[in-house]
């Protein structure tokens, strides 16, 4: 009888392919879209110059979902779709700021002052 078969060690290759797939399907994060929704940014994104590398030459763009579409009909269908409506619902929430994160961690200015004054005593 033969020897037991060794398992092939492909974990490094699997990690690389996982990263590649993850980056291929990457979409903008919610906080990045919040900055794109500011009026001066939104105008730039909606009225882009023609770019042959983008779908629909970059003329049909959904700012809320950060997606390009081939034509206006597909964009209008997208605006009625469930994923677009879910994204709108997510964007209604106010994004966290650095101040809120520090307050949650107990790193407010008052806490820093009191801890430093305790160290001096």
UniProtKB/TrEMBL annotation:
Q: What is its main location?
A: cytoplasm
Q: Which residues fall in a coiled-coil region?
A: none
**InterPro entries cross-referenced by the UniProt entry:** C2H2-ZF_Maturation_Protein, Matrin/U1-like-C_Znf_C2H2, Znf_C2H2_jaz, Znf_C2H2_sf, Znf_C2H2_type
Q: Which UniProt keywords apply?
A: Cytoplasm, Metal-binding, Nucleus, Ribosome biogenesis, Zinc, Zinc-finger
A Pfam family of the record is zf-C2H2_jaz
Name the GO terms of the biological process aspect.
ribosome biogenesis
Listed Basic residues bias regions: 1-12
| Cellular localization per UniProt | Cytoplasm; Nucleus
Q: Where is this region: Disordered?
A: 1-22, 94-121
**Positions of the C2H2-type domain:** 60-89
Recall the GO molecular function terms of this protein's record: nucleic acid binding; ribonucleoprotein complex binding; zinc ion binding
Q: Which GO terms describe its cellular component?
A: cytoplasm; nucleus
Family named by the database record: Belongs to the ZNF593/BUD20 C2H2-type zinc-finger protein family.
Q: What is the protein's given name?
A: C2H2-type domain-containing protein
């Amino acid at each position: 009888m033969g020897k037991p078969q060794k398992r092939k060690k492909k974990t490094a290759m699997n990690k690389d392919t996982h990263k590649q797939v993850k980056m291929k399907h990457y979409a903008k994060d919610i906080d990045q879209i919040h900055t794109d929704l500011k009026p001066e940014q939104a105008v730039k994104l909606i009225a882009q110059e023609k770019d042959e590398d983008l779908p629909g030459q970059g003329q049909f763009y959904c700012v809320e979902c950060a997606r390009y579409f081939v034509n206006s009909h597909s964009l209008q269908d997208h605006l009625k779709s469930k994923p677009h409506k879910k994204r709108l619902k997510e964007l209604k929430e106010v994004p966290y700021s650095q101040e809120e994160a520090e307050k949650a961690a107990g790193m407010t200015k008052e806490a820093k002052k009191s801890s430093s004054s305790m160290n001096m005593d």
